[in-house]
Design a protein that fits this description.
The protein is α/β, with parallel strands linked by helices. It is built from 13 helices and 17 strands. Strands 9-8-10-11-12-16-17 form a 7-stranded mixed sheet, with helices on both faces. Strands 4-1-5-6-7 form a 5-stranded parallel sheet, with helices on both faces. The radius of gyration is 21 Å and the shape is globular. This is Branched-chain amino acid ABC transporter substrate-binding protein. It holds the Pfam family Peripla_BP_6.
Length: about 425
């Protein structure tokens, strides 16, 4: 399917789902977070639309902790400034159960609750549907416009063919992450056979497509030993997949899998006796290091916007502060980009002196924020956040460069490559339609 056909399919699906959601009864809204309630001016409402139940509930709850911590930091310094005065931020939870249709119902509930800002990320298919629905809503009801802040949905099409004035992405998209990973793949001269596996939806398909393209350009000598897409969130036993990987003779696996689909895949590979490398987008958390254990040392590679062992004093202090706020090992899942996203939103509201979506969007287009030594800026042309990337390799806690482990596993990630924001940047094909 070419890019035009992909775009048409995504838009067609999103349009049908948006129409269905508009006709359906409103779903009940989840209980709001206590943070952000104020006895003075009404808070600025932020709506988190995410999987808070089902197979990916752990990812949704991890996102919620990150956002809550970021919002607590903003509120601790007095909140944001509007023309009416200081206002706190308030985060409300909307469980989409991992379903696109449910996400659109939750979007309507969020808008009806008074939220001007919607936050989502753990599915590019959901993100595409939300973008389409918000484009239509904001044109139809300009007095109730809403912005979409995306922290993890990384299908490149979302800031290219599907780019929208109302959508801002704060994660590096899949092609940017792949380019970073390929720096290490290109240097591994012993690697001759690689297996590609991913979740069967827009993001997983984009990862495998870009992997093939970049391997062809940078390491045409590497044979693709196998290529597989599997249903997202439905596979309980990955041993058959792991057996195929081992039988293929692959020396490494490249995957964009996340959540339980990654943890179970890694665990199955270990049980099947596969001893090759895993080049991953998300192998640094949510159970993957513990699942791999000793077998993952030196073999699990992850790309991220930031890692706890990023070698700066500011980074170490930032990570310790998160662990103090959330001391349980299973709650250890912190992402700098989510913190920078909330900082950018607060900065934009302060500059606009309003929580009006249009006024804030115009300021968010020129966001420039720094936290714990990490700086990010928003590119107005496509609303793709520009920030450094790092690549890490799994090792035991206490090894050189690994003062911190993750999730109490005893394993952490040593940073082996730091990529500047300018080097991580990629061209865009976005032709953004802006409000008059």
């Amino acid at each position: 399917m070419n890019p035009i056909q992909r775009r048409q399919a995504l838009v067609r699906t999103a349009s049908l789902l948006a129409a269905a959601a508009a006709a359906a009864p409103l779903a009940a809204m989840a209980q709001p977070a206590s943070a952000g309630k104020s006895a003075g001016l009404a808070p600025v409402k932020l709506a988190l639309i995410e999987s808070l139940s089902g197979p990916f509930a752990n990812t949704g709850e991890a996102v919620y902790r990150n956002l809550m911590w970021a919002i607590e930091r903003v509120n601790a310094r007095g909140g944001v400034t509007t023309a009416q005065g200081k206002r706190l931020l308030q985060l409300e939870r909307f469980d989409n159960k991992g379903q696109t249709e449910e996400s659109l119902l939750m979007l309507r509930s969020a808008i009806d609750s008074g939220a001007h800002f919607v936050l989502q990320g753990n599915s590019s298919s959901v993100a595409a549907a939300l973008i389409d629905a918000l484009n239509k809503h904001n044109e139809r009801e300009p007095q109730r416009r809403v912005l979409f802040l995306n922290y993890s949905a990384v299908d490149p099409i979302l800031t290219n063919e599907l780019c929208s004035f109302w959508h801002f992405r704060f994660d590096a998209h899949a092609d940017m992450r792949m380019t970073a990973l390929m720096q290490l793949v290109a240097e591994d001269k012993q690697l001759q056979r690689m297996y590609l596996i991913g979740q069967d939806y827009s993001f997983g398909q984009a990862v495998l497509r870009e992997a093939r393209r970049q391997l062809g350009e940078r390491r045409p000598d590497i044979a693709i030993a196998g290529e597989e897409l599997h249903p997202i969130g439905r596979i309980k036993d990955f041993l058959p997949y792991a057996a195929k990987i081992k039988a293929s003779g692959a020396q490494a696996v490249l995957t964009g899998n996340w959540g339980n689909d990654l943890t179970l895949l890694v665990k199955a590979a270990r049980e099947a006796g596969f001893d090759g490398r895993f080049y991953t987008f998300y192998g640094n958390a949510l159970g993957a290091p513990a699942a791999m254990g000793e077998a993952g040392i030196g073999k699990v590679v992850a790309v991220a916007d930031w890692l706890p062992n990023t070698p700066t004093p500011e980074s170490a202090e930032f990570y310790r502060a998160f662990r103090t706020r959330f001391p349980r090992p299973q709650d250890d899942y912190v992402h700098m980009r989510m913190q920078l996203m909330i900082e950018a939103l607060a900065q934009a509201i302060d500059r606009a002196r309003s929580d009006d979506a249009l006024a804030v969007a115009r300021q968010l287009e020129r966001a420039d924020v720094t936290l714990a030594g990490q700086r990010g800026t928003m590119r107005a042309a496509d609303h793709q956040f520009q920030q450094p990337l790092v690549v890490g390799v799994m090792d035991r806690q206490g090894a050189p460069g690994v003062p911190f482990d993750v999730e109490g596993s005893g394993y952490g990630f040593r940073v082996v490559r730091q990529i500047s924001a300018s080097d991580a940047a990629m061209a865009t094909t976005c032709q953004m339609k802006r409000p008059g």
